[in-house]
Write a structure and sequence with these properties.
Blueprint lengths: L6 H8 L8 H13 L21 E2 L7 E5 L2 E2 L2 E3 L5 H18 L5 E2 L9 E5 L4 H8 L15 E10 L2 E9 L2 H15 L18 E3 L3 E2 L10 E3 L6 H10 L13 H13 L4 E3 L21 E2 L8 H6 L4 H21 L5 E3 L17 E3 L2
Parallel strand pairs: 4-5, 4-6, 6-8, 11-12, 12-13
Antiparallel strand pairs: 1-9, 2-3, 2-9, 7-8, 7-10, 14-15
Amino acid sequence: MEPLPDPDTAVSRRRRPRATRSRSVLLAAALLAAAAPPVLIAAQAPDAAAAPDGEYVSFTPVGGGFTLAANGKAAPLFVSGDDFPGVVRVVDDLRKDVRRVTGVQPTVSTTVPTSGEPVLVGTIGHSALIDRLVSSGKLDVEGIRGKWETSLQQVVNNPLPGVRRALVIAGSDQRGTIFGVYDLSRRIGVSPWHYFDDVPARKHSAIHIRPGRHTQGTPAVKYRGVFINDENPSTGNWAPKTFGPGHAPGHPNGLNHQYYEKVFEAMLRLKANYLWPAVGPGVRRGRPAQPRDRHPVRRRDGHLARSADDARHRGVGPAREARERSLRRQRRLELHHQQGRPAGVLARRRQADGAGGLRRRGHARHAR
């Protein structure tokens, strides 16, 4: 079988040179990667065939393991159609990730497999497929049930009639399942930065999964996210040219859902779950509501100081906006005092002269 074209190559051709892309998103996500809680891969029931460090992916055959891809073929992927839309979407991402690594693209189905060695993905309590394995005693999920954003990867023998062996990826909740799938993607060789930084996938002709139960544990920090700051000119210029104009009338330079889908995907691959989006004049209003069903990222609108454009959009008058600004400043001073830091006064944002309205970054001046 002739390998399919690398999807990353096609994506790169559609984008502008790396230096002209959204620096704000990259810097914010880089901070996220540094701040994300360290998690260890721990086998809840250690298996003799498991790697010493808990790595469950192998690129050579493993006794009693599961073959994800080999000899020009890839295991089919199955997900219940009644699961969360975000889970159904991430299975399609796994399909593309296997293709990026091996050149072979798996099939995706929402039916119940009756033969072969498939990959089964689903959320406990929301997937008829996973719940069937649990009720029949084929899958023990007591170690993750009811926990926050926790996943389980396990090779299960004879999970369904006619199915000899399956790789099961189950999540305690929607994001737990998504994180479990993206963890597998990362381990087979697909970087969370495959889009925003053009990181190529590591190529392998075969992918195998070690037997046993594997989990990345529950995140130590409940909410982990990024704050998109000073989105102009980098994001404000690049995004509309790459993803098209904003959808709000009168705001063609707004950030549309296609842009945010890429941001959300990168965040979920990094195990983030919270976003403070851009709110500059015209940028926030040009963005439609985020596709929460397909990308379950929590969102809070607003920076420390909202723009005047946003205040007018919310119907807040100048007097009330001044009061809110004063209260925010007072809270910041109190926080600095509690932390034993010098009293900080946030400098007002200044806007430089010239086309494009380049917004210079605000900074803190400390009392001497």
